[in-house]
Amino acid sequence: MSSFTHITNDIPKSLISAELAQGRKSLGGNGVVPGIVLVAMITALAFSARNVSGFALFSPMITAVVAGMIYSNVLGTPAHAKAGIAFSQRRLLRFAIVLLGFQLTLGQVVSIGAGGVGIVAATLGATFVFTITLGRLIGVDAKLARLIAAGTSICGASAIVATNIVTDARDEDVTYAVASITLFGTIAMLGFPLMAPMLGLDQHAFGLWAGASIHEVAQVIGAGFQNGTQSGEIATVAKLTRVAMLAPMVIALGLMARRKSSGQSAARPPMPWFVAAFVAVVALNSLITVPAEVKSAMALATTIMLTMGLAAMGLQADISRLRSRGLRPLALAFSAFLFIGCFSLMLVKFA
Question: What is the pLDDT of residues 268-279, one digit of tens each?
Answer without folding.
Answer: 444 557 667 877
